[in-house]
Amino acid sequence: MTDPRTALDQLVTASGESYAALSRMLRRNPAYLQQYVKRGTPRVLAERDRKLLAGYFRVDEALLGGPQAPAMPAVVQVRRLDIAASAGPGGLVEDDRLAGGEMFDPRLLASLGVREEQAAVLRAQGESMAPTIQHGDHMLIDERDRRIGMRAGIFVIRVDGALMVKRLARRGTEIAITSDNPDFPAFPPLAPDQVEIMGRVVWLSRALR
Predict the structure, then answer these.
(1) Average pLDDT, whole number, for the chain?
(2) pLDDT, position 90
(3) CA 4, CA 41: separation in Å to the nearest integer?
(4) pTM here?
(5) Of 82, 94, 114, 207, which one has the greatest count of Cβ atoms within 10 A?
(6) What does the longest C-alpha to C-alpha distance in the chain come to?
(7) DSSP 40-60
(8) pLDDT band, residue 13 (cuts 50/70/90)
(9) How confident is the model at residue 59, as a pLDDT?
(10) pLDDT-derived band of residue 91, with 50, 70 and 90 as boundaries?
(11) Number of alpha carbons in the 13 Å side-chain half-sphere of residue 21
């Protein structure tokens, strides 16, 4: 582990910046950082100063004496639900029939803004959303995202107890429900209290054979 003073000295030298300029950026006296590096005063950088310097140099705060960032797990598990068993009333909760778990790279979930504990994987049935979603596709849904806006999004919903995946958009005080496959008729617009939003579809996986 590199000593924080040595690390800061190397960063300052490589950047071409002066200790005085960086100290002023921290709203400290011009000698603040030079005294820290050369004389050991203060003994440790204040948390605010450390965060600002780490952000400025785009390095991990731990390099400058901050806490070590927790290691990211190689994979995380998202629960997989039996979509056919979930076709009755109720939500995507533990009462739905679990079909095991599906492993995801946590970096993928982070890029999608999804938390594994508030997500589920379901298998699509039927061709009403083809070509976007094919029969047998595995859909990752974000159960936190249930916002229906003017711009259409794909959601897993329940209407009159039937579980389905459809494209939804708000039209005035109602919700428009459509299928991507033109061979399937559109639903009549429904009031928000007639549609139970389970979550937004944010990612698909598909077998090629």
Answers:
(1) 86
(2) 37
(3) 13
(4) 0.62
(5) 114
(6) 77
(7) --SSS--HHHHHHHHHHHT--
(8) very high
(9) 87
(10) very low
(11) 7
Neighbours of 21 (CB within 10 A): 12
**DSSP letters along 140-205, please?**
EEETT-----SS-EEEEEEETTEEEEEEEEEETTEEEEE-SSTTSPPPPPB-GGG-EEEEEEEEEE
3-state SS class at 35: helix
Q: Are strands 196-205 and 153-159 parallel, antiparallel or unpaired?
A: antiparallel
Q: How many H-runs (helices) and E-runs (strands) does the chain carry?
A: 5, 8
Examine residue 89 and say whether the peptide bond preceding it is cis (omega within 30 degrees of 0): no
- Amino acid 95: pLDDT: 45
Range 63-70 average pLDDT: 83
Please tell me the distance from the alpha carbon of residue 108 to that of residue 100, in angstroms, as a whole number.
Answer: 20
Instruction: Tell me the two tokens of residue 200.
Output: 């937004």
Residues β-bridged to residue 200: 142, 155
Lookup: tokens for 109: 């979930």
Nearest to 124 by CA among 110, 108, 141: 141
H or E segment and range at residue 76: strand 76-81
Between CA 133 and CA 122 the distance in angstroms is 12
Cα separation of 24 and 4, whole Å? 20
